[in-house]
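Case study 2.
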Amino acid sequence: MRYSVVGLGKLGASMAAAIASRGFPVVGVDVVQQSVDKLNAGVAPIQETGLQEMIAANRDRLHATTSHEEAIQASDITFVIVPTPSDQRGAFSLQYAQWAFREIGRALAHKSGYHLVVLTSTVLPGATRFGLAPILEQESGKRCGRDFGLCYSPEFIALAVLFVIF
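Prediction:
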């Protein structure tokens, strides 16, 4: 299996390095060129205990880009771990996830074969199915479940761990 991780912040960079440490190739995607350049140079893009050592030890399996297209074409599974800050009402804002899903959908339009997208960013119930899945379908011209998979597997949930397959 080949992996991609969209969002190379504290959680995404750590996830990419952890997957690579298990022997899998990983393409990281970020909109911040400096984060991409650091990872490609074998340098941790953020400060996290043990991350620099893990990146250095697995550098041959880690690559970063600003291109969602490149990452989707080079992987079978994409983890999306972008910020979901609180909005004015106290709900999670989907603005970064929506942008990432548009880019992923556009890349899926050019991909042959099945691809799995895993949202790990924290969102409210229903956001994946009703707010983000339609974006992937619209941008890719493909059907969720038939042409690509989508699931929600949050990194951090205080009350329970959820894994929902659509």
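Confidence is low (pLDDT under 50) at residues 158-166.
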